Amino acid sequence: MGTLHLLGVCLVFENSQVARSHDWDLVKLRMSETSRVAFGGRRAVPPNNSNAAEDDLPTLEPQGVVPRGVNLQEFLNVTSIHLFKERWDTNKVDHHTDKYENNKLIVRRGQPFYIQIDFNRPYDPRRDLFRVEYVIGRYPQENKGTYIPVPIVSELQSGKWGAKIVMREDRSVRLSVQSSPECIVGKFRMYVAVWTPYGIIRTSRNPETDTYILFNPWCEDDAVYLDNEKEREEYVLNDIGVIFYGEVNDIKTRSWSYGQFEDGILDTCLYVMDRAQMDLSGRGNPIKVSRVGSAMVNAKDDEGVLVGSWDNIYAYGVPPSAWTGSVDILLEYQSSENPVRYGQCWVFAGVFNTFLRCLGIPARIVTNYFSAHDNDANLQMDIFLEEDGNVNSKLTKDSVWNYHCWNEAWMTRPDLPVGFGGWQAVDSTPQENSDGMYRCGPASVQAIKHGHVCFQFDAPFVFAEVNSDLIYITAKKDGTHVVENVDATHIGKLIVTKQIGGDGMMDITDTYKFQEGQEEERLALETALMYGAKKPLSTEGVVKSRSKVDMDFEVENAVLGKDLKLTITFRNNSHNHYTITAYLSANITFYTGVSKAEFKKETFDVTLEPLSFKKEAVLIQAGEYMGQLLEQASLHFFVTARVNETRDVLAKQKSTVLTIPELIIKVRGAQVVGSDMIVTVEFTNPLKETLRNVWIHLDGPGITRPMRKMFREIRPNSTVQWEEVCRPWVSGPRKLIASMSSDSLRHVYGELDVQIQRRPAM
Question: pTM higher than 0.85, yes or no?
Answer without folding.
Answer: yes
